[in-house]
Amino acid sequence: MKPVKGTKTTLKANLEQVYKTTGVKPKKLSEQPEQPTELKYLVNWFYKLFSSTSGSISYTEIRHWSDLTQVKVRAWEVEVIQQLSVIFRRG
Description:
The protein is mainly α. The chain has five helices and no strands.
């Protein structure tokens, strides 16, 4: 899900906050597909990296994040994060 224009927060995160605050589940939130459980960690990593950059995530940023957080990132996971970065950049 793409970030809301002018923010680094996704529409889903905004809708979840509305639900949490009001107790009323927005229709768009109900219509959102669920992330596969096996890949949620990758999406979380991507959001952590994306929120600390100008929108484009470099290999160097992934490496530094990995070193700082002591998270071992495999080559295929780096590629997935890079692909998500490209998708988000296109808007």
